[in-house]
Every structure is written in structure tokens, then in C-alpha cells.
Design brief:
It contains seven helices and no strands. Helix 1 runs antiparallel to helix 2, helix 4 packs parallel to helix 6 and helix 5 runs parallel beside helix 7.
């Protein structure tokens, strides 16, 4: 019972962060599950099953507040689903989360450095000019984010959100 309460509390905190930033539920939850000794494939499956409900609630909330750009959803979702399927297959049969996590970490670190540099050294220019985002950009982004999310345990939000923000073409909301 104590383990359940600890995991429920961590899930609550992870969802609060995810709902406000658009990322971190999977990363936080996956890290905790791996830390307590749950197998990588089981941890990934558990996190993604929990995310069905939490992401639905978060998505409905963002939709009700007018934060959803439907012209981009399909172009991210379909390749993202294909990438997630392939990532789950790779995680279950080819590599372990311990192998995939450093790859995801390096990618996320690079994105973080890029965003910090962009907004630190180019402060005089307007950071966001709302313009169309190319579909040729959204498809591969969805695929890579979905693949790394399923294979590395956390990645859709931390990869897709900063990448879209760093393009300078979309508002953070």
C-alpha cells in the first residue's frame, strides 16, 4: 500500500508539471519506476498506459482554453504513433532502456543548450514570429519524438515542445 501511495503522489506531481509545461510526465515517472527496480519494458508500458488518461485530461483542458492548433496535430500524431510503435518494438526486442537513455539525454541536452543560447544571445529580436510550420518538419519531428519516447522512456514532450519552440514559429501555448 505504501508503494502505491508513493507512486500515486509522484504521478500527481509529474502530471502537474506535464500539464503546465507540456512535458515531463513520462520522463519523471519512467525515471522513478526504473529507480525502484522495475524492468525497462514494463516501466515504459506502465507509464504509457497511465499517460492515456492523464494526457487525455491535459489535452481536453488545452483544447477548452483554445491552445490547440489542429492544423499541426495530425502531422505530428500519425508519424508519432508510427515512431512510438517502432520504438516499443525496439525496446522490447533489441535494446534496453539503459542503452537508449543516454541517446535521449544527449538529444535533450543539445536542445536545451540551443534554446538557452537562442534566447540568451538574441534577446533584441522577437523570439516568436507566428508563421506556418512546414509539414516536412512536423512529420519527422513526430516520428523521432514518438520513437525516442517509447524507446527511451520519456521524450515526446521534452523533444517535441522545445523543438517547436526553437523554430520561433509557434507561441508557447
Amino acid at each position: 500500500m505504501r508503494s502505491f501511495l508513493v507512486l500515486a503522489l509522484v504521478g500527481l506531481v509529474a502530471q502537474l508539471v506535464d500539464g503546465s509545461l507540456g512535458m515531463a510526465y513520462g520522463t519523471t515517472s519512467q525515471s522513478l519506476l526504473l529507480a525502484v527496480g522495475i524492468a525497462p519494458a514494463l516501466a515504459s508500458a506502465s507509464v504509457h498506459m497511465a499517460e492515456v488518461g492523464t494526457t487525455l485530461a491535459s489535452g481536453v483542458s488545452h483544447w477548452r482554453f483554445g491552445n490547440v492548433d489542429w492544423s499541426k496535430v495530425g502531422w505530428l500524431a500519425v508519424p508519432g504513433a508510427i515512431g512510438a510503435f517502432l520504438g516499443a518494438v525496439v525496446l522490447a526486442s533489441v535494446l534496453t532502456a539503459e542503452t537508449a537513455e543516454p541517446i535521449v539525454a544527449v538529444f535533450l541536452f543539445g536542445l536545451g543548450v540551443f534554446i538557452l543560447a537562442r534566447f540568451s544571445f538574441r534577446r533584441h529580436e522577437r523570439p516568436v514570429r507566428v508563421r506556418p510550420v512546414a509539414k516536412a518538419f512536423l512529420g519527422p519531428l513526430g516520428f523521432v519524438a514518438g520513437f525516442l519516447d517509447a524507446a527511451g522512456g520519456g521524450g515526446w514532450g521534452p523533444i517535441a515542445t522545445p523543438t517547436l519552440l526553437s523554430s520561433g514559429r509557434m507561441e508557447p501555448r
